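Translate sequence into structure tokens.
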Amino acid sequence: MSNVLEHYHYLHQIPELGFEEVKTSNYIATKLEEAGYKVTRNINNTTGIVAEYDSGKSGPVLALRADMDALGHIIDGQHCARHTCGHDGHSSMLLTAAQELIKEGNIKKGKLKLIFQPAEELGSGALAMIEGGAIDDVDMIIGLHVRPKEECPKGFASAAMFYSASTTVEVNIHGIPAHGARPHLGVNALDAATMAIQAVNTIHLAPSLTYSVKATRCICDAGVTNAIPSEAYVCWDLRAPTNPAMDELKAKTLKAIELSVASIGAKADIKVSKEIPAAEIDDEVTQIIAESIIDVLGKEGLKEPIFTPGGEDFFNYPRERDVKSGFWGLGVDLTPGLHHPDMTFDTSALENGVKITKTCALKVLG
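Result follows.
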């Protein structure tokens, strides 16, 4: 047995939010240094880590990436961080694979880079690592994510995860305050927010596309019940299967918000606060991952490609840099679902992830 459960149990007990992964980052960096890697901490003044092993012989530069952050929840009225997306498992698998790869000495060419990335849930962690030069010399990058049981059960893995584009739009709506008895003297921000929500709900893309746009937060309160509210805040979540489809959906959303609010004399300050691109996956890398899955789990363990409306900021790497990318999904019998406050999975399946990760690395650098 590997050290993966030891790492997992420790990381699971210290969940930290995006860009706050101080304990997590220190633990991982220290273990990598002890294993013999050249480790650079605090990439781009964040908690991000890059570890390198150079074989000293010519060959490709392969990057393996894991995310480190936990999710924020409100549980029993208390704000807390909790690992409900499996990032502690991702980091544990990559850390364990890294330790074993250098110990076994099977890397014969090129360079291995390990990227432990902060703030995936914020959608800005990958961009911070890119800006910090983490993949400037990388030829190929591979990431992974644990999957819900109904999508990919334990003992199976998919060589290709096709994530959708995801965008968050936040809007502050400004009206004019007035007494509840004299509404004609004001502009009701609540009315404007309602109109914007309904206008966005009328947006359509081609029926062949799997997309959605919906309001996920609306805050409006004049402080009393007999006054016209002058301020409202609304947040929308957008999903689309391709980057061009997202461009269309976003443009229609922004226009619908602006025009509907203006129709009653209100104004909208619109902010696109988070944009995650759709998956860009290289066939060559997918083939390497598929062969690795078969080597570890057998042909019967290789699942078909998975298409998901979820977003993954990993895909900023191939979008921002000329790098081949692959992303795979690991079955771990995860229930009841990702981001659920009570999410759990069979941790014994992490051993499969370690083996597949090592196999991928050696097919490129061995």
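Note: The chain has a mean pLDDT of 97.
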